[in-house]
Write a structure and sequence with these properties.
Layout (H helix, E strand, L loop, with lengths): L5 H10 L5 H15 L2 H10 L3 H17 L3 H11 L2 H18 L2 H10 L3 H17 L3 H11 L4 H13 L3 H10 L4 H14 L3 H11 L3 H14 L3 H10 L12 H6 L3 H10 L3 H13 L3 H4 L2 H11 L5 H10 L5 H11 L27 E3 L3 H11 L6 E14 H4 L4 H15 L1 E8 L9 E13 H7 L8 H8 L4 H6 L2 H20 L5
Antiparallel strand pairs: 1-3, 2-4, 3-4
Helix pairs in contact: 1-2, 2-3, 3-4, 4-5, 5-6, 6-7, 7-8, 8-9, 9-10, 10-11, 11-12, 12-13, 13-14, 14-15, 17-18, 18-20, 21-22, 25-29
Amino acid sequence: MKKNQYFKASKHCAARPASGQPQCYAKIAQVYERKGDLERAAHFHALGKNTARERRIYFLIAQGFEEQGENDRAIEFYRKAGHKERIRTIYRKIGRASRTRGDMDNALRFFGLAEDQEEINATYKAFGDKLFAQKNYKRSIEWYQKAGASVKHVYMKLAQRYLARKAYFQAIPYYELAGLKASEYNVTLARACLAQEKYPNAVYFFEKSGMAPTSYLLEVANFAISKKKYNQAHFYFLKMGKPKTQAAWTTAQGAEKMGDLMLAASFYLRAQNKEHAQSMYLRVLGSKAPAHAARQHEARVALLTLTDSSTAVALTKELAKAPKELGPLLTLLLHKAQGEPYQVVVHHLGWAGTLGTASHNTATSVLRPPLAVKKLFRRVLGKKRANITSVHIKETTLTVPEKRSSAVDLAALKRSLSSRTGDIFFEIRTTFKELQPVIGKTSVRITIHVTVTIPAMKMAKFFTASIRHTESASHRKEKEKDKKLARKLSFVELRSKIRSVEGELKQFLSSIPLK
């Protein structure tokens, strides 16, 4: 031993009687320990049947490898040392590192080797969280269920997704899976419908929730008021049985006292009291209050809609006491009440709308040419049964002094313009703009649209979209030198006839007596 002849020493120990061998091997093992050769030391402790010391040395070796990050060697020596828990610890450490990197398969493998069900479940949940964050809700449910974790929040998200799509009934099963009671999710659905101003749907779900009718009807009515949907509010207040706290909103007189003239007008209309409704709308138009100014467009449309022969007398009375700026409008309404067979548009304070059709900028009276004119036009263009298509050629704006504006005889104007259509083979559409003068302006604009009618096929060949109401476009087309069509449809002639109509209209308007 002193001469480092360890092999001979081990042979010497093996030759000794069995009772003396352990002590002999222990001495060799101690020498190796002092030299730091722990693997050989452990080997000789094993030969000397000193199991405790052998395992202790293997444990120390495994610790060293673990500190150096050599997990495979550490596991090997922990296994020799019989330290299963330390092996599991290493497996957990590897599994957590894999999970952090997003390598769920590797993480699950090592947690399985560690026999750690808690970490396995945590991995399932982490993967579920990852899918949930990616809004892959249905796949996340599978992993949450493997983890034994709650999936209620996932079902809530799925329900909210359907709610955002306005698929209310498809959201219900997910609310139920999320553990919500019918009384809870129906209220949620009702308020979602209310936010989208779907009042009947909201009432349906409120009813399903079991909420007291007085409570949810009041909520719906108050929401309608917040959105200025007073007719809706009135409807739901009435369904409540006219509660005292809301009595002012449920009658025309109450609404009028509270200053909501538009709501009062709607109540009068429900009661078929057109004269009172008309009075309310006119008060809105004559008011400078911001709340009324914001709804004057609605009031004009309502007036144009309800005006008929039954309101003519009331209009005459209103005309006598109306402020100056409402005079032209009332005159216009009187023409309608007296049965004028055409539509008129009023433009006032930046408002534009149509009689019964709010989607267009203007309402026009199209003065159709006689059938004989249409036949002649088709014969000139060589198409007996051609489809007639309109092309807008020119738009002219004329002015009328303010004092003349209320005296415009619209029927006479119509007759004058109509008399020209038989001569020139095109339609004239008149649009009366701002017949109620804008404050600060002294004139009223009347626009004439002159429209040429030609067969669709010819139009496609000769005209393009660029021809719309500009003379330069006409000139460009003339330069195309399509002589055949140019002979049949002369733009020079058309412009001349348009100017003659303009001249006639100016002469007609100037003949109106001043008031």
